[in-house]
Amino acid sequence: MKPIHEYIEKNREYYLNWLTEFCEIPSVAAQNRGMKESVSYLEHLFSKAFNVQAEVLDTGGQPVVFSHLTGETNTILSFYNHYDVQPEDPIELWNTPPFEPTLVGDRLYARGIADNKGNLIARMAAVHAIKEVVGELPIDIKFIFEGEEEIGSINLGAFTDKHSEKINADGCVWEFGYRDAENRLEVSLGVKGLLYVELFAKGANTDLHSAQASIIGSPVWRLIKALNLLKDSQDRILIPGFYDDITPISEEESRMIRQYKISETDLLEHLGIDEFINNLKGEELKKKHIFEPTCNICGIQSGYTGEGSKTVLPSEAVAKIDFRLVPGQLPNKILVLLRTYLDAEGFIDIGIRTFGKEIAVRTHPSEIIVKAVLETIEEYTKQPPNVIPNTPGTGPMYELTEKFGIPAVSFGVGNFTSYTHAPNENIRVEDFIDGIKMMASFIFKYGEEMGLRKGDK
After folding, report:
1. Which of 75, 301, 372, 410 fits a disulfide with 450 by CB distance 3.0 to 4.6 angstroms?
2. φ/ψ of residue 8, rounded to 5
């Protein structure tokens, strides 16, 4: 691997230039902004790096950019990444322009650099370096780049059903990856599921003078009363049947969570808070964080919230809510349980709009791809990675891997303070370069491990 690592080091500015060019494009799917430009840039990059024409595949929404590079064996590794990013708001909280990648100290700041353009480019760079030094890839590589991950991958399920032959692989490296507060690489074997809904209440057919509140009902109070039904003071979700289908935690998963580390003091200090929910610590904190579902209010909107006062009785109130789900919980069933519960409690008038559904997934730690990732990281960093059964976050892993029987693992170039989805998103330059080198090493390691397995058959 030494010649490949030396090549990457020699060409670090070349790969950093790929990254900065890509991050200059404001590819915000939620606003349909910069999406065509991102696709065009990726097409250009595939042509430049690999002398191939990437396929731009229709999804009914933003396209998938796809490329299949053949290697010396019949093992196939896929890389799933996304080229869309979160909106940059609130822009006033950024210290540097979000779409002008800026080096400050040892960090590059830009919207989407950690989630997910840094990992996307690092993986392309690793494959490029292998081909430049060796000439041939040891295994087949598939790049699958989506453009709607940040809006719930709303068209990905239908796309993968239609293009199953393109999705087929022996294993998948998933989009994200970070270092923990102790600078150890985290490896995640899965994701939580998601149900994202909007609850809304309506009152009069127009906003009114607040003097009318004496005789006209308030949709804001109505919505607040409905929201108060969802959780108790101990953060327990009160929807009947909500917890019934959760898959029991295995002994192996329990062992993994005991070994998983959360730097509690660092995290509290970083966030500027005094304690976690219910003052949890240690094992109970980790179990809740990784193994338990959530019900979170993402935002509430109604009436006047500007400067000064305006005496108004709003005509509508809206709350956006995400439920993070764990294995066994299906978003469609949770949606039915939510509707049934609100109706039974007398809130038939509370409307529900649905914006996202994803199913929780975990890869078994015995999979060859897991072994290859862990060995690669430990050999490169000289310390074992921080491994978790699943990240607390969500992605379309079910649609792209689980339903096709493809094991998936996540590791990447982010850090403990990458501020994904927030102002001042960043990665460390050395983490990016190390990420390229490790990914190149992993490709060979995975090829070797898979070759041994297939040779045994």
Report:
1. 75
2. -60, -45
